[in-house]
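Q: Sequence in, structure out?
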Amino acid sequence: MNQNNLKARLKNGEVLYGAFSTIHHSAVSELMALSGIDFVILDGEHSALTPESAEGLYIAAERRDFNCVTRIGENHPQRIQKFLDSGAQSVLIPMVNN
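A: Exactly. Output:
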């Protein structure tokens, strides 16, 4: 698994560029990696992204040494864990109020 360096780069004050994606095809992840942006947020809150469909996206991103952040559709530990088990390196959790 590639090293996730997003947190360290942000801590160092780097400006990072990314995009949201609701398209669940590995070719899109690879194209985003080749576009020069630093990361993609795979949107599972407003799309039908599942841990099973996300796994292929993670593999495609890993082949290009590209970072994916997964926006998980609900703030539920079991749901979050399933995405982590599928290969998510970073997650964005909705509905965190404290």
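The chain is about 40% helix and 15% strand.
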